[in-house]
Write the structure tokens for this entry.
Amino acid sequence: MPVSGTEVALPLGEQEAVERFLDAPGEDSFRELFRATAPRVARYFRTRGCDRELAEDLTQEVMLTVFSQIGRLRKKELFRPWLFKIAKNALLQHFRRSGREVATVDLDPGRHESGGVPADSLAGSRFQEWMAWLEPDERRIMTLRYVEELEYHEIAELLEIPIGTAQWKVFHSKRKLAARFGEGTA
Amino acid sequence: MLLQHGISERKWLEFLDGTMDPEERRGIRAHLEKCAGCAKLASELAVWRNLLLAEGLRLREASRLPDEELDLLLARSMERIRSAEPVGARSSFAWTVADGIRVLRFLMEPICGPGTARAAIELAVRRSADDGSRVSGRNWRLFVGNLSDATALICGLAAGRLVDRAGLCLGIEER
């Protein structure tokens, strides 16, 4: 039986919420899915140059797409890459609409600024400083791995690359960082 | 350097993430005791793994959506859902599983030929059905995925994609 979102003290785990929504798509199961996944989506936008208001608007768009398009998800194990693909497309659409450069927007933290002031939550962080030493594709993968907490197979699915490539990039990115910043002195 | 010792990038990541098979893990540990170069690399990778994990956690906390904002966002989203289309309306018309399979077969036959289409469908049913014989609304997505994979293998990626899109567009009754 679906559980009302307003009566649940603790949000369901993401996986459980996904399964429940897939089994019984409806408002109650969507509420749980929303609570479990919307913060992750909002963070995705915040770490990619969106201010809070824009991040929330885009998050809403993504979650409504999830609600209406869940039937297109082939395997529940691929929910997170699917979710991030929707988020990525929403961000690209937003930048297209607002006439901003889109060539490097894809999962490239720290590139976008608002009114000359870095708007994203990576700005000024050690993470951003580290990522500046990596290639764009390495930055994307490291951000997905360490900020978004995606597994290697999820990164591979999202970026449409072999798992081995994702692992190789992470391995060599760490070596680059170690060569540049040393051990534990970053 | 390390790869020359038979330890791939994937193995290093598994070793440091703690997801490696225990026996393999013991092997690498033993190797590290004898090989200063590998020990240095393991140390570097471990340090950077920990730094990245800690920084990732800090960033997640810094960009966390406050509960009250999440509640507001959820309320706004539910309002939009309700003002758009009633959930029940989405399934006002639904295909039965048999109809759905028939539609996919008609779609595949001109591309793959009747025999291949039938064989691919039978294979996908066997791979998808819980009891080995039946596809239902619950495992329809899995069935479409398996049929798409089989079709792509036999008739090419474009045909597989067509089956996938068509299969997922069909609303299938849960019976």
The beta strands of chain A are 113-114, 117-118.
